[in-house]
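Run log, item B.
One chain of 463 residues. Sequence copied directly from the ordering sheet:
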Amino acid sequence: MGTAEITAEQGAYAERAAALALKLYQKTPKACVITFGCQQNVSDSERLKGMLTKCGYTITEDMNEAQFIIFNTCAVREHAEDRVYGNIGTTKALKKANPDIIVAVCGCMAQRQSVADKIKQSYPYVDMVFGTQVQYRLPEFIYKRLSGGKRIFDLTLDNGEIIEDQPIKRDGTFKGWLPIMYGCDNFCTYCIVPYVRGRERSRELQKILAEAKEMIAAGYKDITLLGQNVNSYGKGTDCGINFATLLRQIDALEGDFRIRFMTSHPKDCTKELIDTIRDCEKVSSHLHLPFQSGSDRILKRMNRHYDRKKYLELVNYAKEQIPDLSLTSDIIVGFPGETYEDFKETLSLVKEVEFSSLFTFIYSPREGTPAAVMEDPVSREEKGRWFTELLKAQEEIAERNIQKHIGKTYRVLCDSVGSKDGFMSGHNSGTAVIEFEGDKGLLGKFVTVKVNSYDGVLLGTVE
């Protein structure tokens, strides 16, 4: 069955599910989607909400008033999994009070067989568990469960075609997510993503451009392209273009908007991509380039396929080519086998590059990854001391970097209410957050702001 036929089939299931739900609940049912994890999960939840709407549900943020509760889960860090189990547990009382409520668990965590087995045995009130590559079948699952079918467990991971043309109910009105690819082929030794998201699969160019045009026409001003490794876009396909070319094609679309993207892998980041960021008017001056460790020994243990020298060459080239570049990164502290000498190499790289901001984590083992069985003699307490040392160094760097914005003028997208009365807030083309006098009428609009001072936040005036 082709993707068009699959989409039509799920549409038919949605219509039948809507009729059944209305008959069962004697009112328009409500659905609550609770999302954990990364931006990709947020984007997936927008598609889940779209399908639920087609199935006759209205969306609510209140789990207590919902007839359908779905947890879209993350498996990257242990803390996220603990939170999921805690939240699932709260539905037991709701289900006891109203047995017709449907409880579902999906996403990366749900893709793991051990998790599905645990839910099957310990959480009998959960109606369905399904993985990342069968989310498009949600209308079918709902129809079957409403029809009195058995509990549903589907962890299919076949790396098949991407099912396009799913309905979408976006959370925002002027900032939105646009997936361009799914999965990952890198198999970093600490990462569970390839095992729960599958291998890399790129969306068709015309599907991406069509969705981008729809978002622009709907008034979206800040569009973030998503992928586990956006730099790999186009690999293994016959589309004949790479990520840099895709960026140029979206940049050429008519409209007043800004393009962001994440996440980039250093091994696939090229000077062509950096030149594209430099040349494109609508591509933001921001590069998120996770280096994870400054030690070549640890990078090899992580299976990252680049070394410190290559990373610094890329970073230095990007700084040369892109004025006011916001450079951000991810760091893992305390990887198995890491010594304090290895950590000091990470610290020295941070001080040399002077990142705009960092996402830092103490290593958390993920069952099923090679790193989870590596010898790890350093205590959690010792890793915590390294972590604190890293945060202190980055705080000093961030304080110096923030001062560089004073006196400069930026084009800012007003995206929220400011922290001070009578002020609004927004981001420049990079990652700087600037507050300025204004009202809610500016939300979703670009304004030109001159930065005058820093008082816990950057403060500016609209020109």
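Observations after the first pass:
- The chain has a mean pLDDT of 95.
- Residues 290-404 form a domain with the Transcription Regulator spoIIAA fold (CATH 3.30.750.200).
Flagged for discussion on Thursday.
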